[in-house]
Amino acid sequence: MDKYKKIIYDNYISNHNKNLYGEMSLERIKAYAPALNHYYCRHLPADKQARILDIGCGDGNFVWHIQQLGYANAAGIDVSAEQIEKGRSMGIRNLHCGDLITFLRESKDKYDAIIAKDVIEHFTRDEVFEILIEISRVLREGGTFIMQVPNGQGFFYTSIFYGDYTHEMAYTESSIRQVMLNTGFSDVSCYPTGPVPHGLTSTVRYVLWKFMVWKLKFWKMVETGSPRGIFTQNIIGVARK
């Protein structure tokens, strides 16, 4: 790991997350539930005994969320000791501190689903290729891999991509399919991360965003002849082994 990345990850809460989002708590995680369910949980296995691994789990907020849904075998790993300690202080179980590449290389376990939420963009192209090959290796046949990354086609993606000094690259629907299909995955689908309606304010945002997407698709069709595209800041890729 580069020296600057180690320094940043060692202080990821103190000098980054806290400045952006404030103090994390279980109450805040509960407030994210509608979005977490919509974006990720609908892709998880139906079997609540499934083994699920969240790589680059941060403080474990998603691990805690799915544990509350009944996935008792959900676990997370992150290189940032500060984030893992924060998660453990909130009572979140099955959190491990360590390098995810080393962890995957040495893993003898098999998983039904692996999550990489806001993680893959922190690695170089060579590292990402190795990580995805290792993820494919430790997934059971028919297992699911879910990743969220900055969307290079997103209208406001620059605030995400350039908002973290450790980011290496952004992705698009095309490059997600390309890298996944070449590292042992199939049945690749991509999804936007727009507003999720669960109240008055979010519903208004949802309607306005839909209108904005329509305009973006119109102008893209004018230039290229095709309106296809995902325009949110982040993009989610889901693949099967």
TrEMBL record:
Domain of life according to the entry: Bacteria
One Pfam assignment: Methyltransf_23
Gene3D superfamilies xref list: Vaccinia Virus protein VP39
Protein name: Class I SAM-dependent methyltransferase
Organism: Nemorincola caseinilytica
